[in-house]
Amino acid sequence: PSAGAVLFIPAPTAIVPGADIARALVPLASEGPPRVLGCWLGGDSVAEARGMSRDAGIAGHETPEEAGRAFAMLV
Q1: For 5-37, how does the pLDDT look when each residue is reduced to its tens digit (9 = 90+)?
Q2: For residue 61, what are the CA distances in angstroms to 1, 3, 14, 39, 72?
Q3: Least enclosed by CB within 10 Å: which of 1, 16, 55, 73?
């Protein structure tokens, strides 16, 4: 709760699909912390998860490096 931001970089697998991770993440992100940034690894296989995150207002980045730079600017 005291974190000003969270950087979330999942690497989904066949056992735990990205959409399942997104369904768990989105409600948590709406509770706080105030800023959540994400970077979905997996190309087209995480398109649904990426869309769910975007629709929930979670900032998305194409690469971990880009996400890390954005996170560093926030904190």
Answers
A1: 889 999 888 899 999 999 999 998 887 667 889
A2: 23, 20, 22, 5, 13
A3: 1
